[in-house]
Amino acid sequence: MLSWLYGLMPIPSSRSWVLGCAVLTALLLSGCETTTMRPPQVDTVRFTPMPESKRVIAQPKIKYLVRADGYEYCARITGIPVTPTSRPMACAFWNVRRKECTVVTPLVTGYNYVGHELRHCFEGSFHD
Amino acid sequence: MIDRPMSMGRLPITRRNFVTLPLALCASAAALPVFSQALELESGVLRVGVLTHYKPFSFVDGQLQGFDVDVLKRLASVLKLELKIQTDGMTNLQKKLSSGEISVIANQLLTTPENRRQFDFVRSYAANQLVCVQHEDDSRDFLSLDDLLGKKLGVLANTGVEDQARGALGKAVLAFPSIDLAFKQLAEKKLDAVLEESLIADYYIERDALPIKVASPFAPPLSAGWAVRKGNKALAQRLSEGVQTLLSDGSLKQISSKWFGYDVSRPNVSHTTLPR
User: Fold this and answer.
1) ipTM of the predicted structure?
2) DSSP label at A3?
3) Which of chain B's residues have a Cβ under 8 Å away from the Cβ of A113?
4) B216 vs A93: CB contact, 8 Å cut-off?
5) Nearest CA to CA, how far is A80 from chain B (Å)?
């Protein structure tokens, strides 16, 4: 399984198993991280956007705030706590009367989070 | 099918009966008030209590009116019930609910653990949360009390919000006996922001056409609903079904637009949560 490594790097046989195990462990761990960071189911499927007539706000004015306290703020306004195992990655709030919507993320984010919240700006609470 | 009455004398007293019989008797005794309330509803009358001074939800201004009152009237119409409404303070309403004088407190009571021990709740129909209210010309982003350091903040006096704001901002917090006074000062740009529940803010904005806006949320949506006596799940269920009808037939949206200018039955916040 790790023979390609041996081909690339001449390693003394006494240390090869130790290094091999270390590399394997690193690969497994990175795989775990990829698994746990998979976006929610709602973000992995295609969807048909609501027609304008049925949206909560047909054409909202959107503001995007990137905050150092993004996790904490989203936790505070949604009631979803920051725990050792999970945390809100993004959130949005909207004002129907003023046709305005604000997306909030922490300093580092992803396309799926921003896209998910953007959909909320148009369609409101579509997955609750 | 039971074809003859069972007398206690014929029931052998086993160890199990010794425990279960008193429990069963207690349970049936506890069910009596519930049964009587269900009967009251079946008789076509719903006895309700609402707060006397709770704008915009229930208040007397010439006559009893308010958002909750309109919802209540529509619900009674849908369920074909006659309403008998009493107005009072919360302490008296709770006493009347306990004694069976009323069956429901038809204001949005918070579903705190303490209230859950005392009441069962009807399905909520309005999303409400603590928000920062700003002048409509103001594009600053106040998302936390830290953001409001050095700013003039208006709050309702003698509330938990005042306590928390004072703890963080000290003398920059101005407490008002009535929140509409704070909104007026905000409209005149004498304050930087006001912290208040979104529905109360939206009501005054709609009613007085104030040049202010609901900006960022400061706390999660409040969990609330009408309260019935603890254990009266049949009544809570029937009223919840009625609320669901109002949500689906569009009448709640209509009532909501009258008081707040938009449909308040859905929350105005969302989130994406992921495992770390």
Assistant:
1) 0.79
2) H
3) 272
4) yes
5) 8
